[in-house]
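**Paired protein data**
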Amino acid sequence: ALGSVTDRHAAEYNMRHKNRGMALIFNHEHFEVPTLKSRAGTNVDCENLTRVLKQLDFEVTVYKDCRYKDILRTIEYAASQNHSDSDCILVAILSHGEMGYIYAKDTQYKLDNIWSFFTANHCPSLAGKPKLFFIQACQGDRLDGGVTMQRSQTETD
């Protein structure tokens, strides 16, 4: 339909399609990689994220502890769907990570391997539409030591 795709120079996206769109959550708690501990608390994050995305009218699917090939298969399938009636797509990955890599259950991989499926030539029905990627993962082993704040007089309502 004419005017359904956002103009390249528009100030905002058209978020008035029939559907908000798909939301895929890859929730990683347990790993086969010996050096990786289980991620305590990830299921609470996943449930909260699911609830909020449903409130925002996303069609949410959660995938738990997937191996890399299953993640790719799922992403490839999602990208092959017709998104003409959707505003956008959202992919969330909750896992361990390190410098530019993220972990599936069985191996690490580069995030480029995920978003490459959603380029305009691979997924034309999402061209000109938001593609939202949320990654929750450490990217190094250094802890944030925090900051000591100076106590000062602050007014609150």
Observations:
- The mean pLDDT is 91.
- The longest helix spans residues 42-55.
